[in-house]
Amino acid sequence: MHSSEVLADWPDESREAAQLVVDKYGEPHESTATQLTWFAVGEWKRVVATKAFWEHRFPAPHYDSVESIIDYRVGPDLFSALAQFDGSVVARRTMGELSATCHDEEANRLALNLAHDLISGDRDVPDARAYYSKEFTDARRKAPTPYMQKLHFTPQSPNPDPDVPTIDEEELRDAEEEGHPSAGSTSDPPP
Fold it and tell me: Which residues have a Cβ under 8 Å from the Cβ of 34 and sit 6 or more positions away?
């Protein structure tokens, strides 16, 4: 399905944001009635534009509907700091991905650069939020916006985190045996 057909039914808030992605990267690699997806475009592993949008008030009211995803492994001890910084930044531990969802690619780049600064210890949450606000307003002033222009780090190679097992094979077999009475056993039905 061509993107123009898909977007015709979308609300302005998400249609305009998705159209910016179409204008930059061309037709999506995958499309459904509610989602357009591009793979390996620009510096991104994946870009997803959705019909659904979410009100986001940081740093100023706007709508989030375009997600930019990179390969980036984040330790679980840093998830809280990322959430405190920006609720639209999401680490997917098992997949080894980090993403930002906003109204455009530049804002996502800003959020991911600051997330990297948090993860690497170069900034704390209050400083990252303050810098985000500064660069966001600088963009309106037509002042330099270095964190919006490009990623200031190299996304990692695919680096998923499969976690560690807490149940060994023997425990699984024992549990399965407990769940399946032996074929030869008979038991009286309850009265």
Answer: 50, 51, 52
